[in-house]
Automatic annotation (TrEMBL):
UniProt subcellular location: Cell membrane
Organism phylogeny: Bacteria, Pseudomonadati, Pseudomonadota, Betaproteobacteria, Burkholderiales
Official protein name in the record: YitT family protein
Residue spans crossing the bilayer: 20-40, 52-78, 90-108, 114-133, 138-155, 167-195
InterPro entries listed in its UniProt record: UPF0750_membrane, YitT
Keyword Transmembrane: yes
Pfam families for this protein: YitT_membrane (PF02588)
Length: 207
């Protein structure tokens, strides 16, 4: 069998339409998990968790609040991330905001089990994050910080996010019922395990 040339084995940059599809798919997965969590009253970590707290306390719509909560982290991204990453992350954050506004009009749940919803929502959001990460995008907030430390210092993004998420969830113990808190912690663990197992620096060659 002829030996492949060095250029043929080198990873190539994702094409524009591949990035565009990935942003839509990843954002849709994340927003669907968020919608499931919102239906059963669960929380998650990161900026989405902060947005859930504001949503539950004030009744403000999730989508616009999520976009506003992310704005301070955009300053960090503009100082530490490249332009292409910032641009795609802003598009992904906007898509999640739009999907979370539109989806309640399109998807309705008649009966859901809380532990299963926590696990399924965690899997969907975690998978959505991995799709976005693989195409050099994220949803801002803690994602920016976790990816920055992974790229700069080699810390695993999933582990960093897991620590931050658990801290946010524990801070909410005075706001939500113990059963909701337990389900939320379970969902955060599932979400971050999906990221930790599927997004490791140096393991994957897709550009």
């Amino acid at each position: 069998m002829p030996r492949q040339s060095q250029n043929s084995s080198a990873p190539s940059r994702h094409l524009f339409y591949e990035d565009a599809l990935a942003l839509v798919i990843g954002s849709m997965l994340v927003s669907t998990g968020i919608g499931l969590y919102g239906y059963v009253g669960l929380l998650t970590g990161g900026t989405a968790g902060i947005t859930f707290l504001i949503h539950y306390l004030t009744g403000a719509p999730f989508g616009p609040v999520f976009f506003l909560v992310n704005l301070p982290f955009c300053v960090f991204a503009f100082r530490n991330m490249d332009r292409r990453f910032r641009r795609k992350s802003l598009v992904a954050s906007s898509l999640v905001s739009i999907f979370t506004i539109v989806q309640p009009q399109l998807v309705h749940y008649s009966k859901v089990n809380l532990p299963y919803s926590a696990a399924l929502g965690g899997v969907m959001m975690g998978t959505g994050f991995v799709v976005l990460f693989r195409h050099q995008a994220c949803l801002g907030g803690v994602n920016f910080v976790a990816l920055f430390f992974q790229e700069a210092y080699g810390f695993r993004a999933g582990k960093i996010q897991m620590v931050v998420d658990v801290m946010i969830l524990m801070a909410s113990c005075f706001i939500v019922k113990p059963l909701i808190l337990a389900g939320s912690v379970m969902g955060a663990i599932v979400l971050n395990l999906v990221i930790a197992l599927n997004h490791r620096p140096g393991r994957y060659t897709g550009a």
